[in-house]
Amino acid sequence: MGWSGDGKGWDKGYGMMPMYSMFPPMWGMKGKGKGKGKQLKVEDNLKVWLGNVPESIRWKELQEHVDQHVKSKWVEIFRGKGKGTAAVVYATPEEASQAISQLNGSSIGGQSLVADSWARGNKE
């Protein structure tokens, strides 16, 4: 039973399956197309950058705070390298610009938020 001696695969489906075929690759191998990480696929004019976000705040708390000003569609708090920052997505560019003016200087967790557009300005 198991592999047939002629090298053509399983003999009639009996026997044991090799262990490596039951599990996805786990030994430091990245799968096909997994090199860039997770990114928001949203137009930049719909996204708002938030800075000075307290580390103790969770995304749900931030979303509740943001929605008090302008209803958001998505909130993501960055950890690690982007610690203290967040991205908020809105339905229209008008809502995003309105949120920037209302959220800039608003207080959450004892800290004052900094709000700005997502797209970086030209460096001259």
Poorly predicted regions are none
> How many angstroms separate the termini?
72 Å
The SSE string, one letter per element, is: EHEEHEEE
What best-fitting shape do the alpha-carbon axes yield?
globular
Secondary structure category = alpha+beta
How many individual helices? 2
Strand content: 15-25%
Helix content: 10-25%
Structural key phrases:
RNA-binding; alpha+beta; mRNA binding; 2 helices; 6 strands; 18% helix; RRM domain-containing protein; 124 residues; RRM_dom; globular; two-stranded antiparallel sheet; four-stranded antiparallel β-sheet; Euk_RNA-bind_prot
Give a written overview of the molecule.
- The protein has 124 residues and is of the alpha+beta class.
- It is built from 2 helices and 6 strands, in the order βαββαβββ.
- 15% of the residues are buried.
- The strands form 2 sheets. The chain has a 4-stranded antiparallel sheet, covered by helices on one side.
Q: Would you summarize the structure shown here?
A:
It comes from Effrenium voratum. It contains two helices and six strands.
Topology:
Blueprint (H helix, E strand, L loop, with lengths): L46 E5 L7 H11 L4 E5 L6 E5 L3 H11 L3 E2 L2 E2 L1 E4 L7
Antiparallel strand pairs: 1-3, 1-6, 2-3, 4-5
